[in-house]
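Request: Show me your protein:
***
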Amino acid sequence: MPSRLLPLRPDPVIDGRALRVALTGVAQATHEETRRRPQVLALLREAMSQGRAVARARLEGGLGGIETARLLAAVTDDVLTALYDYVTTHVVRASNPTHGERLAVMAVGGYGRGTLAPFSDLDLLFLRPYKTTAHTESLIEYMLYVLWDLGFKVGHASRTVEECIRYARADFTICTSLLEARHLVGDEALAADLKKRFRREVAAGTGAAFVAAKLAERDARHERAGASRYMVEPNVKEGKGALRDLNTLFWIAQYLHPAEAPAEMVRLKEFTGQEVKAFVRAFDFLWAVRCHMHFVTGRAEERLNFDLQPEIARRMGYGGPDDRPPTDEGCDDPAVDAPARTAKMVERFMRRYFLIAKQVGSLTRTFCAQLEAEQAKKPQGLSRFLPRRNGPEAPRRHFAPGFYEAGGRLAVEPQTFERDPVDLIRLFGIADRNNLDLSPDAFALVNRSLSLIGGKLRRDPQAARAFLRILAHGRDTYRTLTLMNEAGVLARYLPEFGRIVGQMQFNMYHAYTTDEHTLRAVGVIADMAAGRLSEDHPLAVSVMPLVADKEALYLAMLLHDTGKGGAPGGQTLAGARNARQACERLGLSEDRIELVAWLVRNHLAMSDFAQKRDISDPRTITAFAQLVGNPERLRSLAILTAADIRAVGPGVWNGWKGQLLRELFTVTEALFRGGRISEVTAEHVEDVRQILAANARRRFIESGADTPDRLDRWAQSMEDAYVVAFPSRSLLGHYGLSTRAQASGGAAASADLMYDGHATEVVLAAQDRRGLFADLCGVMAAFGANIAGARVYTSSSGQALDIFYIQDRMGEPYGRDDSHGLDRLICALQDAAIGKPIAVEPRRLDFTRTAAFVVAPSVTVDNEASDSATVIEVSGRDRPGLLQTLSRALAAAGLSVQSAHVENYGERAVDAFYVIDDQGEKLMDPSRVSALKTALTTALLEAEPDVHRALAQVRRRAASAR
């Protein structure tokens, strides 16, 4: 751990004097620049390569991130100095330089601070006394071309001192870069003059405006890079809680209190000794991560993507001795199991990353608040620019004993928590009710008092009431819980929640850490309760007022994922145990504890039934209703399910999922009101058939296009499950397609944007044959249509009616903005239905991004979930055309697909099929079941050799960059 924030210039790793001597030797050997230049480039390139190799070796040997960045900057300094010496001595030498030909080369930006990542841009300022001359122009041009040839991305400016001052006054970005300007080579007096004038003519008296600009810039950057510091693929440079946030603190402190030595800056009163250590620790860790990322990728990669995380974790020592990379041999080599071994390693490493990001957030928040407090006595100063709840002139308000408002923030008297530890919980309730942030002193006092939160406080009834009021009745629940989490109170008060703070799930489905996802989900429920999400969640918003025990619902949401992390019994059972323990400590009655535990244990059930089962199958509704038991649980589970899905990440929730949940809720609620499902279904079937007959008679008598008897015969040929699944208007449309297909002896298809706008319904009528469904799925995949759901019905006369619900790759209804593309898809489906080959370029399979993930194949066969069909659930690595591959395996096994239900969770696809055999029966033969499982598992593993090759490619790329 470095003892200073930015250590002094490290020991040289290349011999700058020897490099200059070698360049001079090249110049003396020949006077032809065209012959000298390649040799000059070779010497400089070798020096940079040697320096980077040493930096890399030392980093991998345990050198700190800050020292590595300083070493790389020092190497670059030596190369630039040697280049300048060569150019001014042997290329554009001025035998008697004039005053106007003086030039100083200065490092600005991050390079000016003396830190550099392996492939960062090089920011240079060529400083002139006044207007440019032919001599300085030639010198600058030569240097830039050499640097470009060396592979540097150079951000450069050529300015006079006067221009620098003028531009810095007008632009805080330029002002920031000059704040860290550092003389490299050339005229030292010129560089010193710039720094002196910058302090006197730019920085003096503009501290408040500079701070305001930097904070506004930070907020805009967070919006671009991802508003949460808990994004599971964070930007190490620009993200929230990343290096740029620490740099912002450094810039503000340096601007307000200039310090020549960085070690002086960190002794400013804005930083306590503990905060200085945290600052240095965070800086060092983040710099190490960034340098490793650059070295591994061979470029200026700033986002810690999934495919990088295993390699960076291994390099930073989070793996064991068996974490070795797979070879190129594919599945036969035991090392291909490395992803399974590295998943835990990555989660350990990323938890460390997110805890550091959390610490950076606390530092930033405390530091900015302290600056505001420091300037509170200056009405025309910094306090004008910093965001405030109330002005410093506002009268002091007192709340409960020990709590008062100071400077627009909630302050606490020093002995408050020692007198009554329950106030550690009450504090956040008062802040929430009065829309106040915590004062810096209050935040620090909370951190120092965390040891007071022990078993006694966790079982205190007053603390429980205060906490439940925040959780279920708060003004801004998400903000307040996040503040409690940042302060460390939530993890101490609920140890079950504390175990998931900073926890990352190594998959592509979850966009946030487990604790952040949970808090966002609680916030979604609060938004639903306030009626703010009625457009996206009409069901949840409408039933929220009917929920009898809202505290139980919020508790279940807060505790629903506490079983993650490999606890015995799996996520749901472990989570239910945790929920029961927490609720018992909170003093809930047994029936309320049981409700919370049940919701946690079954929080995945409703989404599973809605997305993986056929809701039109009576057995599905019966099973779900038996699981739920009563309307109160149904309402709570519906709200919890919707909030859980929405909080997974941007774009995960969509209208299609909402529609499925609403349909399941509606039919289950009706069942609770109306008796046995078989009776409800039979009555409904008869009603639908009568309505269909009446509509048919009216329609066809008026048009004379057909006879009601023919339609009636067609309707009688279709199974009951089909009749109850669609409104009569849709049934009449399907009959029209069926008639067209029979008349043409081929197939007929149509497409309609569904009334709710969440998917496009494609219906195709054709003579049934083995492999028909698979062929249609293949066309969908080739055209880039994602199948969200499918139903297949076959009449007694052998005609198939295949109904697909499709979306584009962005989750929008397919063809909504491309009617011609939808028309082409319809034509291709009709051709495929009659066996015509479809010439469409297959989508290329690229597993580079997903290769590091463990996706174990799984096949289950269930003959109890449906009265009429066998339900087969298949889970494995997602890829284009997977549904077609699985459908072909089913067809080869002599099975017909009755319905398909498709869902993906990042890199994992989960598909459920309702199938029957050639006799229209369930698949009951054990030998056939076993053979089918083998065939489907083989289909799931079909692309795995490509996956392992992609993973090996990632590993080779990492090794070659060493």
In short: The longest helix spans residues 338-374. Residues 16-204 form a domain with the Beta Polymerase; domain 2 fold (CATH 3.30.460.10).
